[in-house]
Amino acid sequence: MRVHVADHPLITHKLTVLRDERTSSPVFRQLTEELVTLLAYEATRNVAVEQVEIRTPVTTTIGVRISEPRPLVVPILRAGLGMLEGMVKLLPSAEVGFLGMARNEETLEPTTYAERLPEDLSDRQCFVLDPMLATGGSLGAAMEFLFRRGARDITAICILAAPEGVAAIEKQVEGRDVTLVLGALDERLNEKGYIVPGLGDAGDRLYGTV
Ligand code: URA
């Protein structure tokens, strides 16, 4: 598994505002979108392309275009939905599938409550959007789901991650083609399963739930 932690002052600046408890939901949503677009640039570094010949007004030349089958973007509901616009801005030709995972707040175990994905993901590159990699439960379950359908490789984009979550995913996906692209790697998880210092509940902050 490859792990890429963003190292860019613009990303750190936006993350700092995102973490601030005084940041309102509209600003939080806007910043999440911007951050995902920046992270998507790194996450799509290995997107499959094929050569094409085109004519410029001057001559013909060889360029590339994104290969078929189209990449699949999978936001994990609910908070991953706040990352979708930022992702498709950079990858407008991607297909979008949905996976609803909820965390049982007592056991911290993930359950699937919604799924809208192609049956066959053979040869598909998948980009999973999940803002908070905490225990790794829901992201791990989502990856398992996609690999069972034949996904060729999976890149997950997370705004923040805890070392515990990264370790859990690494153990689970051993031997598979997985990349994590993280806005930041935080210190730890607390006893309630929140990332520290983190930003609180990403879904609540995106959608203004009290
Ligand atoms: N999910 C969140 O939204 N925040 C955390 O800190 C952990 C999981």
If you had to describe this structure to a student in words, what would you say it looks like?
α1 (about 10-20) runs antiparallel to α2 (about 25-45) and α2 packs parallel to α3. The chain has one domain: Rossmann fold, CATH 3.40.50.2020. The protein has helices spanning about 10-20, 25-45, 85-90, 135-150, 165-170, 200-205; strands at about 1-5, 50-55, 60-65, 70-75, 95, 100-105, 110-115, 125-130, 130-135, 155-160, 180-185, 190, 195. The radius of gyration is 17 Å and the shape is globular. The model has no long low-confidence stretch (mean pLDDT about 95). It starts with a strand and ends with a helix. It is built from six helices and 13 strands. β2 (about 50-55) and β3 (about 60-65) form a beta hairpin. It is of the alpha/beta class. The strands form three sheets. Strands 1, 4, 5, 6, 7, 8, 9, 10 and 11 form a nine-stranded mixed sheet that branches. Bound molecules: uracil. The site of uracil (URA) has 10 residues, from α6.
Helix coverage percent: 25-40%
Distance between the termini: 36 Å
The bound ligands are:
uracil
Tally the structural domains.
1
Helix segment tally: 6
Report the order of strands and helices: EHHEEEHEEEEEHEHEEEH
> Helix- and strand-based class?
alpha/beta
Beta-strand content estimate: 25-35%
Count every beta strand, where a strand is a DSSP E run of 2 or more residues. Answer: 13
CATH class: Alpha Beta
Largest sheet: 9 strands, mixed
Characteristics:
alpha/beta; 9-stranded mixed β-sheet; globular; 13 strands; GTP binding; two-stranded antiparallel sheet; binds uracil; glycosyltransferase; 31% helix; Rossmann fold; single chain; 210 residues; allosteric enzyme; Upp_B
